[in-house]
Design goal:
The chain is an alpha/beta fold. It is 51% helix and 13% strand. The strands form 5 sheets. It has a 5-stranded parallel sheet, sandwiched between helices. α15 runs antiparallel to α16, α16 runs parallel beside α20 and α21 crosses α24. It is elongated and about 140 Å long.
């Protein structure tokens, strides 16, 4: 029976006992396991708040795997990362003498009796048990030492320079010692309490690795990451030069390398990377690890096989031969005019061109063909490979060597240029995506931009999955774009969104899934990627680049969410401010009429029988007037709300301006009795295509405004004339004029022409005027005439006068 993770999560115990930390979950099961390893199940239990006690054997620690294999001769298949051991809250060593353990094995207390004999014969031999016991004691002692130092220096660790951490670099290649170097680096980093990184240098030779070699590189770097190392891939013409520069840049104190591989005559041509590092190292130590014999190597070699071999590019070799033939034709044309030594330069140039255009192999072929063609066609005796002068043999040798060197160098430059160009394009695309995300403002646009760039850079199908209204991850709405991933597993995406860690291809969770799922920061979104080539996401530096893309997309989505939240907060604040201002204004301007109405009504109720007819009529008139003021005030508020909602349907019709003015004057007859009004409309004034009721309201507000803020006897003038934009109308007075400051602010809500006083109103009349004019496509302005007073001008759409 296998452990049921989901059942444990449902029960949510306070403490859970889980045996065999390094156990591998079966590929099939019911229910099917979510993780490949039991330690991954335990990580999810810890994340859910469940305390876990578990057991582990020392031989299952990943960093000790190669040592255990050398000690016992058996490679342990089930391992777990050292970080799981290091992150444990408490470690308890169960130490048993080898003889007692063997006695328990023979008694069948550990394995079944039929398995115990095989286990004792193959692995649990007394020397092996003693060595494993020593490893366990050392590992626990290291843990105790780290805990003791943390307890004594945690209060003042920064100010103790002698506790500065070492920086360890582990240089690996595709050879068989790389795995040993990674594990040795982990043990050394733990012993030194050092930061450590694993560096793989892609030289021109390594750029042509076979499929197995590239797979091995991925496995090595993933192993290093699982042990807690930072993985770095660099490129350059010389591994030693690149490592020296990188070690100085990172301020490394130790560089761990494998033993030199060159032997015999190869040392005469080129020194090994290890030798060059030892010779040129300055400021750091170079530690050389001797190669160990691994009885059961875990990683395949770098030699290609039938499955991993790439097809031979015969067209390139044919092109290099064509270049040699062209050089021969050119040499024939020059033969009678130049010396033979100058013809050599033609062939050297041809070999260089072949190497640049077609690569190293075709360049070497062109070099050999050029030497043969030069000998056959131009060296006497001509048209034979015989050589009359032995000095020509030296010429042939030098020519072949020079063309080979030039061809090799040019091919290396070509290969490095291609790699650098690819990296530059990726960087440029990352910058382009960041720039476009910064310019986008809504989430759907950002999601489409992210999918477009990720699909282009990583040659994959991608999709950005975001939580729907219920919080469940769902596909984006709208038409999918090119490169969209249409078959994403929403269950895996939901798990990634809930836990905030990646899952799927190349991860520790559901690694058999064909796609990789990455969390998008705090947005709870998920980037799902289905690569056409698995190496585009399995290689650590490629995965780091993909995680950078996902981080940029997540930041963009988070910015869009924050912008939307900020806009909502702004609108809410403005609404709250408007509500408070409205309530304050209405409460202020309703207080006076309500007091008048209450007083008049009280007088009528208490002394109505003692008042004469005129007094009762005056009180009733005051009640009526103040009630009308209150009605107008509330009406203004409702009218402005209706106009600003944008849902007002204008009842447009052809109207005469004089008719609209007369209707407004009749409505305000009582209020304008102390203000003479003069109407000056042009005789040829055009008709206007407007909503008559609203325009009457517009005139009424402007005339009422003049009546309120000018003294009795002030003349009011209404002017109208044709304009290029229709009809321009002005309402002017000769009163005290507009208040100081920006006159355009008078059209804002709750702006009044005077300070608070006895004049009723909440400052919405001119706001309503502007809303009416703008609803008709016009513009209204306030002006200060040179002779004083106030002038309001606005335009209305017009049509030719009726015949």
């Amino acid at each position: 029976n296998e452990f049921d993770l989901d059942a444990a999560l449902r029960r949510r115990p306070a403490v859970l006992l889980v045996d065999e930390l390094a156990h591998s979950n079966p590929v099939e099961g019911d229910p099917q396991p979510r993780h490949a390893k039991r330690w991954q199940d335990i990580e999810e239990l810890l994340a859910a708040g469940i305390s876990v006690w578990t057991t582990v054997n020392v031989q299952h620690l990943e960093s000790l795997n190669d040592l255990v294999a050398q000690i016992t001769g058996i490679r342990q298949r089930e391992t777990f990362p050292d970080r799981i051991f290091d992150e444990a809250d408490e470690i308890e060593l169960i130490d048993l003498p080898p003889d007692d353990l063997l006695a328990r094995l023979h008694a069948g207390k550990i394995y079944l009796p039929e398995l115990a004999g095989t286990a004792v014969e193959r692995f649990f031999r007394r020397p092996n048990l003693l060595a494993l016991r020593e490893l366990a004691l050392r590992r626990v002692a290291d843990r105790v030492d780290v805990s003791a130092r943390a307890a004594t220096t945690s209060a003042d660790r920064v100010s103790r320079p002698w506790l500065a951490r070492d920086r360890l670099l582990v240089a690996i290649g595709p050879d068989g010692q790389a795995e040993q170097l990674v594990r040795a680096g982990k043990r050394m980093a733990d012993a030194l309490d050092a930061e450590w990184a694993v560096v793989f240098v892609e030289t021109p030779q390594l750029l042509r690795l076979s499929t197995r070699g590239r797979d091995r590189r991925i496995s090595l770097l993933r192993l290093a990451e699982s042990l807690g190392a930072e993985t770095v891939t660099l490129d350059g013409p010389s591994a030693s030069q690149v490592l020296l520069e990188y070690a100085r840049t990172r301020k490394a104190t130790r560089v761990l390398v494998g033993a030199a591989k060159q032997r015999g005559w190869r040392l005469l041509l080129r020194q090994s990377t290890t030798t060059e590092l030892i010779r040129n190292a300055e400021g750091f130590d170079v530690i050389v690890i001797a190669a160990a014999t691994d009885p059961q190597p875990r990683l395949t070699d770098t030699k290609g096989d039938a499955d991993g071999a790439t097809p031979v590019p015969w067209n390139r070799y044919a092109g290099s031969v064509a270049i040699s033939l062209f050089c021969t034709v050119v040499a024939f044309l020059m033969y009678d005019h130049v010396e033979l030594s100058n013809l050599v330069m033609v062939y050297v140039l041809g070999a260089a061109i072949a190497a640049v255009r077609y690569g190293r192999g075709p360049g070497v072929l062109a070099s050999v063909v050029n030497v043969a063609a030069f000998d056959f066609f131009f060296v006497p005796p001509r048209f034979t490979f015989a050589v009359s002068d032995a000095e020509y043999l030296l010429t042939f040798a030098v020519m072949l060597i020079v063309t080979l060197v030039i061809g090799t160098l040019m091919a290396s430059v070509r290969q490095q240029t291609r790699v650098a160009g690819a990296r530059e394009r990726r960087t440029a695309l990352l910058y382009a995506m960041s720039r476009e995300l910064a310019a986008a403002s809504d989430v759907p646009t950002m999601a489409r931009l992210g999918v477009k760039h990720v699909a282009e850079v990583f040659e994959c199908d991608a999709v950005v999955l975001l939580p729907a209204d219920g919080g469940k991850i769902a596909y984006p709405s709208g038409q999918p774009i090119a490169g969209s991933f249409k078959g994403a597993d929403l269950a895996i995406a939901q798990w990634v969104a809930d836990h905030g860690i990646r899952a799927g291809l190349g991860s520790d969770t559901l690694p058999a899934a064909p796609a990789l799922y990455l969390p998008l920061g705090r947005t709870r979104g998920v980037l799902a990627v289905l690569p056409a080539n698995r190496r585009r996401v399995l290689l650590p530096e490629q995965r780091h680049l993909l995680e950078t893309f996902a981080g940029q997309i997540g930041l963009g989505l988070e910015r869009a969410g924050l912008a939307a939240a900020a806009e909502t907060a702004r609108v809410t604040a403005e609404t709250e401010s408007l509500r408070n201002t409205l309530l304050a204004s209405i409460s202020h301007d309703l207080r006076t009429p309500l007091a008048v109405i209450a007083g008049a009504a009280s007088t009528l109720a208490e002394r109505g029988s003692h008042l004469d007819e005129l007094e009762r009529t005056a009180l009733a008139r005051s009640i009526e007037a103040k009630a009308r003021d209150m009605t107008d005030l509330i009406g203004n508020v409702l009218e402005l709300t209706r106009l600003e909602s944008g849902h007002v349907a204008l009842r447009l019709d052809w109207q005469g301006v004089d008719d609209l003015v007369n209707e407004a004057l009749q409505r305000l007859g009582e209020r304008l009795r102390d203000h003479p009004v003069e109407v000056r409309l042009a005789p040829d004034l055009l008709s206007v295509f407007v909503d008559g009721a609203l325009i009457v309201q517009l005139f009424a507000n402007l005339l009422d405004n003049a009546a309120k803020y000018t003294p009795a006897g002030t003349k009011v003038t209404i002017e109208g004339a044709n304009d290029d934009n229709g009809v321009r109308i002005a309402v002017a007075d000769t009163g005290p004029g507009l208040p100081p400051g920006d006159v355009s602010r008078l059209f804002d809500k709750f702006q009044r022409g005077t300070e608070e006083g006895s004049i009723a109103g909440v400052g919405l009349g001119l706001s309503i005027c502007r809303a009416i004019v703008e609803a008709h496509g016009g513009v209204i302005e306030a002006r200060r005439p040179p002779r004083g007073g106030a002038r309001f001008e606005f335009t209305l759409p017009a049509a030719p006068p009726a015949s």
